[in-house]
Write the C-alpha cells for this entry.
Amino acid sequence: MKQIRLFTFITGFIILLTFFSCKSNSTPYSETYFAMGTVCTITLYEKNSNFDFQEAFAVIDKIEAKMSPVISGSELDTINSNAGIEAVRVSDETFFVIKEGIRYAEIKNSGFDISIGPLVNIWGIGTENQGVPDDNEIRDLLPLIGSEYIVLDDNEKTVFLTKKRMSLDLGGIAKGYAADEVKKILIQRGFTKGIINLGGNVLTFGEKVPGVKWKIGIQDPTDSRGNYIGTLATEASAVVTSGIYERFFIEDGKRYHHILDPDSGSPVENNLLSITIITDSAISADALSTVIFSEGLDKGINFLESLPEMEGIFITKEKKVYVTNGIKESFTLSSPGFTPGN
C-alpha cells in the first residue's frame, strides 16, 4: 500500500545548552527553518553583513529535493520508480550518499540498510497510515532488502536497483550529510564557530569561548522533549541520537518504533531506549547511531570502542546509562531517575 511519510527518520532530540563556565561576548544569531520533515536551526556567533541564513537553508533544500523519496521527480524517486527497469544517472551528491549508505550497510551484522524503503512504507510509522503490517506482507518484502541489489557505476554515476518494487530510503543518513554540507558553506563564508541543529542532529564547529568545550544535554528518553539526563562537554563534534521513543505507535498494548530490522522486517527488539554517537562527522554519526543501536548494549559498546575517534552514550530500558571510555570524564549524569551502568 502507498504511504505518505516524512523524508527522514527522526532521531532523538539533543538539547544544546547555553551555559558555559565563563562569560562570553559572543552574541548568538539564530534562524529556524522547516526542511527534511523536521525543524532546522542554525546559530552563529559572528556577524557577516554579506551573509543570509537562506544560503545555508538553501543547501538543505537542495539535498532534500534530490534525496527525498516522496518528492515526485527527485533523484531518489526516479531511482525507485526505475527499480528492476534501468539505471538512473544522479548527481555527485546523491551518488556519494548512496555509496556511503551501502558502506555502512555492509558492516557486519549491521541493522542499517538504505534499501529498507519497502518496509518503511508498509509500517508507515510517524504517518497517518501507521500500523502493524500482516506477516505475509512483511515476508513478501524481505527478499527486496539488501545492499547487494544496488548496483553503482562510479564512472557514469548511475544507480540501478536490480529488483522491481525495491526502494531506497536515505532517512538514516541524509540529514547527517546535510549538516556536514551546511558546516562547509558556513566556514567558506568566514564563520569560525556555530551550531547546526537539524531536528536534534547536532553539529558544532569552532569554539564559542576559547578553551571551553561545548555543553550538550542528552535527551531523557522517558520524558518530554527538552528534559535531559545529563550533559556532555565536548570539542567541536557531531552528536546524534537514535531511540525508540521519538517515533512510535502503540497497537494492542505493544509499542512499535521506527528503527526497523532489515532481517526480520519489524522494529528492532533489544534492551536499549537510545544511543548517542559522538564523532567529527555528522553523516558517520547519523548512520552509526542506527547501526550500533541495532547491535544492542554489549555488542554495541564493544563495536564502538573498536572504532577510532568514536564515542557513545547508551541508555537502557532499566534506566542505566553506559558511556564509552573516551568520554567518561566528560559526561555528567544529573537525572536522579537514572543510574550509571559502568
Summary: The chain has a mean pLDDT of 90.
